[in-house]
Known about the structure:
There is one protein chain. The protein is α/β, with parallel strands linked by helices. It has two domains: about 1-255 and about 445-505, Ribonuclease Z/Hydroxyacylglutathione hydrolase-like (Metallo-beta-lactamase, Chain A, 4-Layer Sandwich), CATH 3.60.15.10; about 260-440, 3-Layer(aba) Sandwich (Rossmann fold). The chain is built from 16 helices and 22 strands. It has a seven-stranded mixed β-sheet with strand order 6-5-4-3-2-1-22. α4 runs antiparallel to α7 (about 165-175). It starts with a strand and ends with a strand. Bound molecules: zinc ion. Zinc ion binds next to loops.
Amino acid sequence: MELRFLGGASTVTGSQYLLVTDRAKVLVDCGMFQGSPNESARNRVPFAFDPKEIDALILTHAHLDHCGLIPHLVAEGFKGPIFATKGTLELANLVLIDSAKLQQEFADRTARRARRDPARAARDERRGHKALDAALAAAEGTDPEALLRAQTPHVHLDMGAPLYLEADVVRTMALFKPLAYSAEFAVASGIRGTLFDAGHILGSAMIRLTVREGGTDTTIVFSGDLGRNDTPIIRDPTALTAADHIVVESTYGGREHEPETEALRVLSETVRLVAERKGVMLVPSFAIGRTQEVVFQLDRLIESGAIPHLPLYLDSPMASKATEIYRHHAEYFDDETKALLARTGDPLDYPGAVVTSDVEASKKIRDAPRPYLIVASNGMLTGGRVLYHLRDLIDDPSAVILFVGYQGQGTLGSHLQQGVKTVTLMGESREVRCTIRSISGFSAHADESELLAWIGRFAKGKKAGDPGFPRTVFIVHGDPEAQRALEPKIRALGLTTKVPAWREVVPLR
Length: 509
Ligand SMILES: [Zn+2]
């Protein structure tokens, strides 16, 4: 039995883990690589396996970096079941249709530009292929199978072409098998699975797989993206206590979130500052999870009189649709939100929020009378409508960009957080004159103490060799710096750790 780390290894995107046993091949997540060109080029590297040979796929949650390559997998021949919660199924449909559209738009734009400016297009293409070559070289380092595949001519494909079309998404959605939390199901020959609430976004799950081989059971727990206790709207992550191997995310290794009170203080102070300056507050936000939580908090702050009621533009059609899905799934809400729902009717609603439906309405926001607030996706400024607002506001001293989520290494968002004075924005060099602020207290990810507390329960009251004491903790889904910080602290719990490299194959003992 072995685990292959095909994405989300030493990076926060592209989650993809393959479990191979004597009898089955099961994939956990199949996410898109996002961020820098070198990162996203990995989406073009051929799969490290034949998609037709995969028996089943289990999806932890609907964020693009966990589900974004599934239609590509299906287009390449995968026909097995896709297990996920009902909430994940509905959100994934939204995310994947949007992704197919964005890819088509990008392809059309690239083709138009190539006609207008062939020299620049050729330059872009060379740059794209250089990134692809680097990704292929990284893949070759650990997987001889990939090396062989990399030599096939179809790798040198059109870097701008969509990875999949809407039709592939439709075929993908037909493969989904919606499941409830905590109910064991048959995954593939010799493998049973159970989903538990991960407390990250609506429908998010951690996965426990039990593999029967030679008369013994081996249990592997995948944390998925691990949420936090006491965050609004959804329930807390499940505390599990036994596994033979753990695959745990590490996004916030080495870092602690500020307390929620501090996050709310910064949020209200920023809204008041923008009101005073007659400025604009732009919140780059993930359409699913963060947007609902930020709107929820703003609504509470207005209710308590902590902030003035400024106009809010929700400029993300996907976020609005996601909020609708949240509203239809109150069964996933925590007790506090259920109570609020009974009392106020709709805790996910900002009074008088303007929801933009098309690009024209989005462009008109800039002419609105100030002050006002915009929440737009995507959260790491790697694309989406938020970039157009950023272009309007980047050198405007009365504007504030407020980050509320993790900014992956090398992304524009992370450069801005580090305080760079000039940035390249949509091909232009621009001066940064707006205010940049960050709030980590609204994160959908556990911080270091919370990660350690979750992992610690597996070791508590046991010692190495005891049943249920993990033999390996695989640290995934984190930038290298975070993983370096977290690893010694997991070892200090008496556990054996491993930080797998991209495409590394590790036998499970
Ligand atoms: Zn996520």
